[in-house]
């Protein structure tokens, strides 16, 4: 499991030349600490024992339904990521950033972590001049595909529309366009990230190039939380249709059309259709209080 450890910066700050002592264990945050923290951020901070928590901790894969993060914070603005990092550092909590929530190992719903659900930060901005698209850390692959398709442009992605663009890019990103356009990570030109001590850096090929190198394949849940990234887009190829088969437990018998990467396929996949056929559960996981079908 990868999760950002709030203790990293503290360890680095230990006085030099002193014999190594047994590390002091930070006190767990009390309910009052959580309440005080929640007042400083915009999104809800859901704690165990509430219905919101039970819903907010769920991710794509039902194998992780029993996982128990210490809290789930829904990030409504980038400034709150730094606040959460500092809070985690103070109490030695591990942070688990969550984009699309599709980690194969449930890293974005890991036990004992403070989950930062980044999905509200799903802006996508197309820039023809720089040939890049600026992607918020909560944008799904479908968000980016659909936005770029309107301009006849594309980035290489994976095949599942609800996978997070940040999560996929930071892990490499392999899909049907990879032979033509490379990995999604190859398209990354700039990443803005918040480090465990709450400071921010912009990483490019020439600026913090070591971080930039590490992000392209090893960035998921490591190094820092990417709040936005720029990716170089390419001319869109002839559109195709993909019908990924999702795990059995997600599908009604005979239904193999839950997901589609075809930007012309309206309404958006896993929106209205999912709610109608599969009840509220999946939709609630995907967009807390929102509507992904619009
Ligand atoms: C159904 C399905 C289909 C898939 N298809 C493909 C495919 O075609 N091609 C392919 O390459 N991969 C594919 N994957 C794998 C997928 O790309 C990875 O699991 C990816 O890491 C998921 O990203 P996410 O944001 O959806 O998941 P999350 O669980 O939210 O995040 C994955 C990891 O990245 C970290 N992370 C997320 N956002 C950030 C951020 N902003 N900053 C720092 N760390 C962050 C999380 O902490 C976690 O460690 C698939 C996975 C599934 C479940």
UniProtKB/TrEMBL annotation:
PANTHER family named in the record: BINDING OXIDOREDUCTASE, PUTATIVE (AFU_ORTHOLOGUE AFUA_1G17690)-RELATED, FAD-BINDING PCMH-TYPE DOMAIN-CONTAINING PROTEIN
Protein name as it appears in the record: FAD-binding PCMH-type domain-containing protein
GO molecular function per UniProt: FAD binding; oxidoreductase activity
Cofactor(s) needed by this chain: FAD
SUPFAM superfamilies: FAD-binding/transporter-associated domain-like (SSF56176)
Ranges of Basic and acidic residues composition bias in the record: 253-265
Pfam families: FAD_binding_4
Annotated stretches, region: Disordered: 236-294
Organism: Flexivirga endophytica
InterPro entries: FAD-bd_PCMH (IPR016166), FAD-bd_PCMH-like_sf (IPR036318), FAD-bd_PCMH_sub2 (IPR016169), FAD-linked_Oxidoreductase (IPR050416), Oxid_FAD_bind_N (IPR006094), Oxy_OxRdtase_FAD_BS (IPR006093)
Biased composition (Basic residues): 272-287
């Amino acid at each position: 499991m990868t999760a950002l450890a709030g203790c990293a910066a503290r360890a680095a700050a230990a006085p030099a030349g002193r014999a190594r002592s047994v590390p002091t264990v930070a006190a767990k945050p009390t309910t009052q600490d959580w309440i005080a923290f929640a007042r400083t951020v915009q999104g809800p901070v859901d704690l165990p024992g509430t219905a919101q928590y039970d819903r907010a901790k769920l991710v794509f894969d039902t194998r992780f339904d029993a996982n128990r993060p210490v809290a789930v914070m829904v990030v409504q603005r980038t400034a709150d990521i730094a606040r959460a990092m500092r809070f985690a550092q103070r109490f030695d909590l591990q942070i688990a950033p969550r984009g699309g929530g599709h980690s194969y190992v449930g890293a974005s719903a890991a036990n004992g972590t403070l989950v930062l659900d980044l999905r509200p930060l799903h802006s996508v901005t197309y820039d023809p001049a720089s040939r890049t698209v600026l992607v918020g850390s909560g944008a799904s692959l479908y968000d980016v595909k659909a936005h770029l398709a309107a301009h006849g442009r594309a980035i290489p992605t994976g095949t599942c529309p609800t996978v997070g663009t940040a999560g996929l890019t930071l892990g490499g990103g392999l899909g049907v366009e990879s032979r033509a356009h490379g990995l999604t990570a190859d398209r990354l030109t700039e990443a803005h990230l918040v480090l465990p001590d709450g400071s921010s850096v912009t990483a490019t090929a020439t600026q913090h190039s070591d971080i930039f190198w590490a992000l392209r394949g090893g960035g998921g849940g490591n190094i820092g939380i990417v709040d936005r990234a720029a990716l170089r887009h390419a001319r869109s190829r002839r559109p195709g249709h993909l019908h990924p088969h999702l795990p059995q437990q997600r599908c009604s018998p005979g239904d193999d059309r839950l997901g589609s990467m075809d930007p012309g396929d309206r309404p958006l996949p896993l929106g209205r259709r999912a709610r109608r056929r599969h009840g509220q559960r999946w939709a609630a996981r995907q967009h807390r209080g929102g509507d992904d079908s619009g």
